[in-house]
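Q: Given only this backbone (98 positions), what sequence would you predict?
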């Protein structure tokens, strides 16, 4: 069972909404290679607000994900795509149905 999670909120720079969506779509194959990341969702909260919601079996898997390929890609493109730094919240999962 997933016991740890992340909620990452992303605010696209004006005019970069399509590029943010393309970035999030391109992250899926990277996440699929992470055995400890499941589930993983890229979402849109509003016209320019996006997010990533993902869950992990433990802290080690969550930390591995944060330092993995998606985290590195997010950091590398943050200045280009986002109006502010990604807002990352670490969560404890109380209950889940997957």
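A: Predicted residues:
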């Amino acid at each position: 069972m997933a016991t740890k999670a992340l909620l990452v909120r992303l605010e696209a720079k004006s005019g970069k909404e399509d590029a943010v969506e393309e970035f999030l779509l391109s992250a899926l194959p990277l996440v699929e290679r992470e055995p400890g990341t499941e589930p993983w969702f890229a979402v849109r909260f509003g016209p320019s607000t996006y997010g990533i919601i993902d869950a992990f079996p433990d802290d080690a898997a969550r930390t591995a994900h944060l330092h993995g390929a998606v985290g590195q890609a997010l950091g590398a493109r943050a200045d280009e795509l986002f109006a502010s730094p990604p807002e990352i919240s670490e969560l404890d999962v109380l209950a889940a149905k997957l």
